[in-house]
């Protein structure tokens, strides 16, 4: 049995019906002796009360200094209900700072708790007095130690700190550094920082996407015009300026990757002129059909990928 | 017997004439193909031309060559500070019999046959003279000797140099707006042309050079009719109309069009100008370019090619930027063409 019952049944004479409300107060501590300066004193207080009663939090002792040598470190409350009774269990942790010169008994002061029941006729309260109890404290060493030459020898060497294994932390650090680098690369790509500054959008890939489904449109003339405009915008985006038909040689000089499609582009500009400015969409379509627009866009997109755009 | 020719065929013949005209002028003015081409466009658009550039780059030679190749009556005046409008219209002198005489001046001397009026160093003339030119250029008419003179075929060519500022008068905005083009001329970049100009004695005697040109390569009296036919034949699609209007909008309100030029507050750059007349001139000139290219419809390249010469002098900047207009306006025009999509 680990715990020793220190005090049993400290019962209090309370007048009237209050007598029955607090049925018993029990204080349990592991041992009443063998405490040195700095030791923790753990105490368990069981209070049995009538059903319906519970402790009022405001009446609990507050953690902090109790006497000049004693401090309450923590207090927890655990309430359980049984058939005909309610149990309030307090777990208190004290710490003694008494530097004893000889073995002596010290009294830990008691305290009063308020228990309350919220019944039909209003709130009924009662007091539960936790009694004072004592512990025996002992000195750590003799009062007058033998003289030493070096005063440092009175001191105990520092306890050895355990060696921590840095391996897992290093692994985590490497993992997170990798993730951070990846995030930085993604951010730099998104913001076109540094080497990504030269990156262009995949303009012709977007054109190719936008051409999909145009062939199934009911009005093929409008679809054809839309396809030509999409290709115009792709060229504009690739060059960063508006590319007109007369600019084709200069455009190919600036972007040699698209030289493979020089003929297609020349046909495109011719068809575009006929469609938009010559108002001869039908003639343009017969010379350079929508299928050829799509084929050229596909080749341009391939050239764009090869160029690493 | 007159053979009735199809309109298109007539325009094709005239296109060949225009090419011959350019070649003829190009014999005299070497290394200035663009200036010659723009002057040709101006002739067939019936617009007046202001040439400006450095001293001795061939402004006067070009205009004299054009006047000779064009044929028709030709008058020339030199702008001076003490010139008055009446000096252009009347010639006053004491006759042999000692009585004062008033006779028609340079503008009226050839009366209504005048086809080229060449105003040298126009910025040396006073604003009063510029005002006279306003009516002459806009309406091709003038009132003198209590009657109205009409010059249906008149074309005003003027030049000015950019070097001197003393004793010169800036052309008023209204006068500048009436010029179809302001063509900037620079010494040719081409090495062979430069060598020829400096070492070939043919280019040293300008009079002999001009006199060596074939006169009247094109029939100046018919140009007005042909110019009208060109304007009616060359088609402008709705797309090109939208393009020109978008260019106009972007030039007048560059900030709203999303144009940015570093170091310039785009919202406070343009003060005014860019008149509807300017845009109409632009389309006229572009149509002539399309015709010279052998097309029957306008394309954006036509607009872009003539745009700087036709529009740059119509853009008026806020005073804080006006001193830098020679760098700002070309940059702005380039940015406008890079921004506005076509079609």
Automatic annotation (TrEMBL), chain A:
Q: Per its record, how is this protein called by name?
A: MxaA protein
Q: Write out the entry's keywords from A to Z.
A: Signal
Q: What is the lineage of its organism?
A: Bacteria, Pseudomonadati, Pseudomonadota, Alphaproteobacteria, Hyphomicrobiales
Q: Which domain of life is it from?
A: Bacteria
Q: Where is the signal peptide?
A: 1-20
Automatic annotation (TrEMBL), chain B:
Q: Which domain of life, per UniProt?
A: Bacteria
Residue ranges constituting the AAA+ ATPase domain according to the UniProt record: 45-189
Molecular function as annotated in GO: ATP binding; ATP hydrolysis activity
What SMART domains does UniProt report for this protein, alphabetically? AAA
Bilayer-crossing residues are none
Query: What's one Pfam family here?
Result: AAA_lid_2
State what protein this is by name.
Answer: MoxR-like ATPase
Q: Which organism is it from?
A: Methylobacterium gnaphalii
Gene field: moxR
